[in-house]
# Entry
Amino acid sequence: MNRIKQSLAWWCFGRTMDAGALISTAVKIGYKGVEMAPEELWPQIIDAGLQIVTAGGHQWHPYGLSRLEEHDRIEDEVKAKLDTAMKWHIPCLIVFSGNRNGMDDATGIHNSVIGLRRLAPLAEAAGVTLVMELLNSKVDHHDYMCDHTPWGVEVCQQVNSPAVKLLYDIYHMQIMEGDVIRTIRDNIAHIGHMHTAGNPGRNDLDETQELYYPAIARAIADTGYTGFLGQEFMPKGDAAAALEYAFKACDV
# Structure
Protein backbone atom coordinates (compact mmCIF):
# COMPACT_ATOMS: atom_id res chain seq x y z
CA MET A 1 0.00 0.00 0.00
CA ASN A 2 1.23 3.48 -0.86
CA ARG A 3 1.75 6.06 1.83
CA ILE A 4 -0.20 9.01 0.50
CA LYS A 5 1.69 12.26 0.02
CA GLN A 6 -0.19 15.09 1.68
CA SER A 7 -0.25 18.81 0.93
CA LEU A 8 -2.10 21.80 2.34
CA ALA A 9 -3.96 24.60 0.58
CA TRP A 10 -2.38 27.87 1.67
CA TRP A 11 -5.56 29.93 1.39
CA CYS A 12 -7.22 27.86 4.10
CA PHE A 13 -4.50 28.08 6.73
CA GLY A 14 -2.39 31.11 5.83
CA ARG A 15 -5.19 33.42 6.93
CA THR A 16 -4.73 32.60 10.61
CA MET A 17 -1.08 31.49 10.82
CA ASP A 18 2.13 33.40 10.22
CA ALA A 19 3.82 32.19 7.03
CA GLY A 20 6.95 30.97 8.76
CA ALA A 21 4.95 29.20 11.46
CA LEU A 22 2.71 27.50 8.91
CA ILE A 23 5.65 26.27 6.89
CA SER A 24 7.53 24.92 9.90
CA THR A 25 4.36 23.33 11.29
CA ALA A 26 3.67 21.60 7.98
CA VAL A 27 7.18 20.17 7.87
CA LYS A 28 7.01 19.00 11.49
CA ILE A 29 3.68 17.22 10.95
CA GLY A 30 4.90 15.46 7.81
CA TYR A 31 3.34 17.34 4.91
CA LYS A 32 5.26 17.13 1.65
CA GLY A 33 3.77 20.03 -0.29
CA VAL A 34 1.89 23.31 -0.34
CA GLU A 35 -0.78 24.43 -2.78
CA MET A 36 -1.87 27.78 -4.16
CA ALA A 37 0.61 29.73 -2.03
CA PRO A 38 1.60 33.32 -2.86
CA GLU A 39 4.49 33.21 -5.31
CA GLU A 40 6.66 35.42 -3.15
CA LEU A 41 6.67 32.64 -0.53
CA TRP A 42 7.73 29.88 -2.90
CA PRO A 43 11.49 30.18 -2.17
CA GLN A 44 10.83 29.98 1.58
CA ILE A 45 8.54 26.97 1.11
CA ILE A 46 11.04 25.14 -1.07
CA ASP A 47 13.97 25.94 1.23
CA ALA A 48 12.00 24.21 4.01
CA GLY A 49 11.87 21.03 1.92
CA LEU A 50 8.28 21.32 0.70
CA GLN A 51 7.08 21.15 -2.89
CA ILE A 52 4.81 23.64 -4.63
CA VAL A 53 2.15 21.16 -5.70
CA THR A 54 -0.52 23.17 -7.53
CA ALA A 55 -1.14 26.64 -8.91
CA GLY A 56 -3.97 28.15 -10.89
CA GLY A 57 -3.64 27.56 -14.62
CA HIS A 58 -5.82 30.49 -15.58
CA GLN A 59 -7.84 33.21 -13.94
CA TRP A 60 -11.02 32.18 -12.15
CA HIS A 61 -13.87 33.51 -14.26
CA PRO A 62 -17.59 32.81 -14.64
CA TYR A 63 -16.77 31.48 -18.10
CA GLY A 64 -14.03 28.92 -18.65
CA LEU A 65 -13.10 26.11 -20.99
CA SER A 66 -16.71 25.34 -21.83
CA ARG A 67 -16.87 28.64 -23.79
CA LEU A 68 -15.13 28.75 -27.16
CA GLU A 69 -14.72 32.51 -26.93
CA GLU A 70 -12.59 32.08 -23.79
CA HIS A 71 -10.07 29.69 -25.33
CA ASP A 72 -7.61 32.28 -26.64
CA ARG A 73 -7.46 33.99 -23.24
CA ILE A 74 -7.08 30.72 -21.38
CA GLU A 75 -4.37 29.46 -23.72
CA ASP A 76 -2.32 32.64 -23.23
CA GLU A 77 -2.67 32.37 -19.45
CA VAL A 78 -1.87 28.66 -19.33
CA LYS A 79 1.21 29.11 -21.53
CA ALA A 80 2.60 31.64 -19.07
CA LYS A 81 1.79 29.41 -16.09
CA LEU A 82 3.42 26.40 -17.76
CA ASP A 83 6.68 28.33 -17.95
CA THR A 84 6.33 29.11 -14.23
CA ALA A 85 5.46 25.51 -13.42
CA MET A 86 8.54 24.20 -15.22
CA LYS A 87 10.78 26.70 -13.41
CA TRP A 88 9.43 25.77 -9.98
CA HIS A 89 8.75 22.07 -10.65
CA ILE A 90 5.00 22.36 -10.04
CA PRO A 91 3.29 19.12 -11.17
CA CYS A 92 -0.29 20.36 -11.57
CA LEU A 93 -2.06 23.46 -12.86
CA ILE A 94 -5.74 23.81 -12.05
CA VAL A 95 -8.20 24.65 -14.84
CA PHE A 96 -11.94 25.24 -14.78
CA SER A 97 -14.98 24.57 -16.93
CA GLY A 98 -16.73 27.79 -15.94
CA ASN A 99 -20.47 28.17 -15.44
CA ARG A 100 -23.32 26.81 -17.54
CA ASN A 101 -25.36 29.98 -18.01
CA GLY A 102 -27.93 27.90 -19.91
CA MET A 103 -25.46 25.76 -21.86
CA ASP A 104 -26.29 22.04 -22.05
CA ASP A 105 -23.79 19.45 -20.82
CA ALA A 106 -23.02 17.98 -24.24
CA THR A 107 -22.05 21.36 -25.66
CA GLY A 108 -19.96 22.12 -22.59
CA ILE A 109 -18.09 18.84 -22.95
CA HIS A 110 -17.55 19.41 -26.68
CA ASN A 111 -16.18 22.91 -26.14
CA SER A 112 -14.00 21.92 -23.20
CA VAL A 113 -12.47 19.11 -25.24
CA ILE A 114 -11.61 21.56 -28.02
CA GLY A 115 -9.92 23.89 -25.55
CA LEU A 116 -8.01 21.16 -23.74
CA ARG A 117 -6.83 19.59 -26.99
CA ARG A 118 -5.17 22.91 -27.74
CA LEU A 119 -3.48 22.91 -24.34
CA ALA A 120 -2.60 19.23 -23.96
CA PRO A 121 0.49 19.18 -26.23
CA LEU A 122 1.88 22.22 -24.42
CA ALA A 123 1.33 20.57 -21.03
CA GLU A 124 2.81 17.29 -22.19
CA ALA A 125 5.94 19.05 -23.44
CA ALA A 126 6.25 20.86 -20.11
CA GLY A 127 5.75 17.70 -18.05
CA VAL A 128 2.81 19.31 -16.25
CA THR A 129 -0.69 17.93 -15.68
CA LEU A 130 -3.72 20.16 -16.25
CA VAL A 131 -6.34 19.14 -13.70
CA MET A 132 -9.92 20.31 -14.25
CA GLU A 133 -11.51 20.83 -10.88
CA LEU A 134 -14.76 19.15 -9.94
CA LEU A 135 -16.78 21.62 -7.84
CA ASN A 136 -20.25 21.45 -6.34
CA SER A 137 -22.91 23.65 -7.92
CA LYS A 138 -25.34 23.10 -5.04
CA VAL A 139 -23.71 25.04 -2.18
CA ASP A 140 -20.48 26.83 -3.09
CA HIS A 141 -20.29 27.35 -6.87
CA HIS A 142 -23.77 27.78 -8.23
CA ASP A 143 -24.15 26.97 -11.94
CA TYR A 144 -20.61 25.54 -12.29
CA MET A 145 -20.57 23.04 -15.15
CA CYS A 146 -17.96 20.43 -14.18
CA ASP A 147 -19.96 19.38 -11.12
CA HIS A 148 -20.20 15.60 -11.59
CA THR A 149 -17.44 13.04 -12.07
CA PRO A 150 -18.93 11.47 -15.25
CA TRP A 151 -18.92 14.89 -16.96
CA GLY A 152 -15.23 15.38 -16.19
CA VAL A 153 -14.31 11.81 -17.09
CA GLU A 154 -15.98 12.17 -20.49
CA VAL A 155 -13.88 15.26 -21.16
CA CYS A 156 -10.68 13.46 -20.17
CA GLN A 157 -11.51 10.43 -22.29
CA GLN A 158 -12.17 12.54 -25.37
CA VAL A 159 -9.02 14.64 -24.93
CA ASN A 160 -7.07 11.41 -24.40
CA SER A 161 -3.88 12.97 -23.04
CA PRO A 162 -1.80 11.94 -20.01
CA ALA A 163 -1.49 15.66 -19.26
CA VAL A 164 -5.24 16.24 -18.82
CA LYS A 165 -6.92 14.81 -15.73
CA LEU A 166 -9.37 15.75 -12.98
CA LEU A 167 -8.96 17.37 -9.62
CA TYR A 168 -11.29 15.17 -7.61
CA ASP A 169 -12.44 17.24 -4.64
CA ILE A 170 -13.92 14.84 -2.09
CA TYR A 171 -15.93 17.52 -0.29
CA HIS A 172 -17.49 18.88 -3.46
CA MET A 173 -18.31 15.46 -4.87
CA GLN A 174 -19.79 14.25 -1.59
CA ILE A 175 -22.30 17.07 -1.93
CA MET A 176 -23.10 16.34 -5.58
CA GLU A 177 -23.02 12.55 -5.84
CA GLY A 178 -21.63 10.78 -2.76
CA ASP A 179 -20.36 7.21 -3.21
CA VAL A 180 -16.85 8.62 -2.90
CA ILE A 181 -14.76 5.46 -2.52
CA ARG A 182 -16.41 3.61 -5.40
CA THR A 183 -16.14 6.68 -7.62
CA ILE A 184 -12.43 7.08 -6.89
CA ARG A 185 -11.74 3.41 -7.53
CA ASP A 186 -13.66 3.41 -10.81
CA ASN A 187 -12.10 6.61 -12.14
CA ILE A 188 -8.60 6.72 -10.68
CA ALA A 189 -7.05 6.64 -14.16
CA HIS A 190 -8.53 10.08 -14.80
CA ILE A 191 -7.70 11.66 -11.43
CA GLY A 192 -4.52 13.72 -11.21
CA HIS A 193 -5.02 15.42 -7.86
CA MET A 194 -7.39 15.31 -4.86
CA HIS A 195 -8.68 17.67 -2.19
CA THR A 196 -10.33 17.08 1.17
CA ALA A 197 -12.72 18.85 3.54
CA GLY A 198 -15.35 17.80 6.03
CA ASN A 199 -18.99 17.88 5.01
CA PRO A 200 -21.18 19.65 5.91
CA GLY A 201 -19.36 22.90 6.53
CA ARG A 202 -16.07 22.47 4.64
CA ASN A 203 -14.28 22.30 7.97
CA ASP A 204 -12.05 19.90 9.91
CA LEU A 205 -11.87 16.18 9.16
CA ASP A 206 -13.24 15.44 12.61
CA GLU A 207 -16.08 13.35 14.01
CA THR A 208 -18.73 16.04 13.46
CA GLN A 209 -18.87 15.48 9.71
CA GLU A 210 -20.10 12.62 7.55
CA LEU A 211 -17.00 11.57 5.58
CA TYR A 212 -14.73 8.94 7.16
CA TYR A 213 -11.33 9.92 5.84
CA PRO A 214 -9.25 6.98 7.15
CA ALA A 215 -11.30 4.63 4.94
CA ILE A 216 -11.22 7.04 2.00
CA ALA A 217 -7.45 7.49 2.27
CA ARG A 218 -6.92 3.74 2.55
CA ALA A 219 -9.00 3.19 -0.59
CA ILE A 220 -6.99 5.84 -2.43
CA ALA A 221 -3.71 4.24 -1.37
CA ASP A 222 -4.95 0.83 -2.50
CA THR A 223 -5.41 2.14 -6.07
CA GLY A 224 -1.69 2.88 -6.33
CA TYR A 225 -2.34 6.61 -6.65
CA THR A 226 0.96 8.51 -6.58
CA GLY A 227 -0.29 12.11 -6.57
CA PHE A 228 -1.00 14.38 -3.63
CA LEU A 229 -3.99 14.54 -1.32
CA GLY A 230 -4.46 18.20 -0.48
CA GLN A 231 -6.05 19.35 2.77
CA GLU A 232 -8.36 22.17 1.66
CA PHE A 233 -10.67 22.94 4.56
CA MET A 234 -11.31 25.92 6.82
CA PRO A 235 -10.29 25.07 10.39
CA LYS A 236 -12.88 25.79 13.05
CA GLY A 237 -10.29 26.49 15.71
CA ASP A 238 -6.52 26.15 16.00
CA ALA A 239 -5.17 25.69 12.46
CA ALA A 240 -2.06 23.75 13.49
CA ALA A 241 -4.10 21.27 15.52
CA ALA A 242 -6.57 20.84 12.65
CA LEU A 243 -3.74 20.21 10.20
CA GLU A 244 -2.22 17.56 12.45
CA TYR A 245 -5.56 15.83 13.03
CA ALA A 246 -6.27 15.78 9.29
CA PHE A 247 -2.81 14.49 8.46
CA LYS A 248 -3.18 11.59 10.89
CA ALA A 249 -6.67 10.77 9.56
CA CYS A 250 -5.26 10.39 6.04
CA ASP A 251 -1.83 8.95 6.87
CA VAL A 252 -2.23 5.37 5.71
In short: The longest strand covers residues 51-56. Residues 5-250 form a domain with the TIM Barrel fold (CATH 3.20.20.150). The chain has ten helices and eight strands.
